[in-house]
Every structure is written in C-alpha cells, then in structure tokens.
Specification:
By secondary structure, the chain is mostly helical. Helices cover about 65% and strands about 0% of the residues. It has four helices and no strands. Helix 1 crosses helix 2 and helix 1 packs across helix 4. The two termini are about 20 Å apart.
C-alpha cells in the first residue's frame, strides 16, 4: 500500500468515523486543534489502525501522533514491517 493509498483510506475512515469534511483532512491537519478529535476519538483511531495494519499499535507510536501525516507514518511503518516479515518468512 502506497503512502497516497494509506492517506486515502484514512481520509475515508476519518470522514465516516468522526463526521469530518474530506476537505479538512490534509496531511498537515492537527488531529486535536484542526479536526477537533479528543482522547476517545484517539482510542477509536487506534482500533482502526490495528484493523488496517493487522497488529496492535504500540503506545509509544500513539503518543507521537499529532497530525494526519503522523498517522500515515505509523501505518506506513507497520505495513512495511509486515511486508518485510512476509518476504523473509
């Protein structure tokens, strides 16, 4: 999955889950200040990331997420790790 595909999937998910306008969801958008997401929303997002990547997102990754781009980075890292394991396993 490319970075653009990850962003498109997350944008769709965020629109659906949080009733956001797609135009508000940009890579630079701050989850809290620009999109109005709170800690409960963060938990919902973590569950969705787990579904998307197929593995639990570590707390250390979750605490670094501030922007949509940060979310894309986390998903990209996790998917890359899964792909690396598939090629060596």
């Amino acid at each position: 999955m490319t970075r653009d595909e990850i962003f498109a999937e997350l944008s769709s998910t965020m629109c659906e889950m949080f009733e956001l306008s797609r135009s508000d969801i940009t890579l630079d958008a701050d989850l809290r200040n620009d999109l109005g997401l709170d800690s409960i929303d963060a938990v919902d997002m973590a569950v969705r990331l787990q579904q998307l990547t197929g593995k639990k997102v570590p707390l250390s990754d979750l605490v670094t997420i501030r922007t949509v781009s940060d979310v894309v980075d986390v998903v990209e890292r996790h998917l890359a790790g899964l792909e690396a394991r598939k090629s060596t396993g």
